[in-house]
Design a protein that fits this description.
238 residues; alpha/beta; Spore Coat Polysaccharide Biosynthesis Protein SpsA, Chain A; 39% helix
Length: 238
Amino acid sequence: MSFQFTIIVPVYNEEDNLERVEKELLAYSKIATKKTCILFVNDGSKDNSQAIIESICNRNDNFNYISFEANKGLSAAIKAGFDYATTELVGYIDSDLQTNPEDFNLLLEHINDHDLVTGVRANRKDSFVKNMSSTIANGIRRAFTHDGMDDTGCPLKVIKTDYAKRIPMFKGLHRFLPAMILLQEGKIIQIPVRHYPRIAGQAKFGLWNRLFGPLADCFAYLWMKRKYINYKVAKHDL
C-alpha cells in the first residue's frame, strides 16, 4: 500500500488516551486528502502504552510504531519519526488530542506552495498560566528567529519530508521547526486550527519547559544559525 503522508504521534505515558487516538486517527485516515499512515513513537513510556500501541498496530494496517529504549524527550521522538518516515509528507500530532486530526486537511491545502504548514491554536483551552507562559515564550523566540510564527508549540504540523529530514534536531528544537525550514530557504505559513481541553493523562511540561527552557534554546538556535550549512545540488550523475 502506497502512502503519501505520515502522521507522527509521540507517546510518553499516554495509556488513557491511546484508544481514543486510534479511533480519531482511523476516522481521519478515511477522509484524509492524502493517503495517510500513522507512526507511533513511544518515548520510553513507563505505563502500559507500549502494549496498547502494539495492539493498535496489529489490528490496523496503516498504523506502525517505534519504541525507544528510554525516555529521550519530544524532540527526539519527532526526529525519529522524521528519520523513519518514507512518505513525501510528514506531520505530527500530540497523543493528548488537544488538536483535531481533521484539521490536517486544512494544513494540507497549503503544502503544495509551502514547505512547512503549522497550526496556530485558536481560542486555546489551556490554563491562564500555560497560555501566558506560551505567549511570552513565543514572543522571545520570534525576537531571536524572526520566523513570524505566533504558536510554534502547536502540535499540528505538516512538512515536506525532504526538508524535515535535513533538520539537525537537538533537545528543544521542536519549537524551532519553522525557523529551521527558513534556514533551508523554505516557505512557511501558519493556519488557525481548533483546540480542546486535555481530557485524559497529564501534561508533560511545566513552567520551566514552556518559558525558561525555550529561552535557553534560543541561544542554541543562534549558534546553529551561524554554523548552518545550506546547499543545493545543481547537477549530478549518481
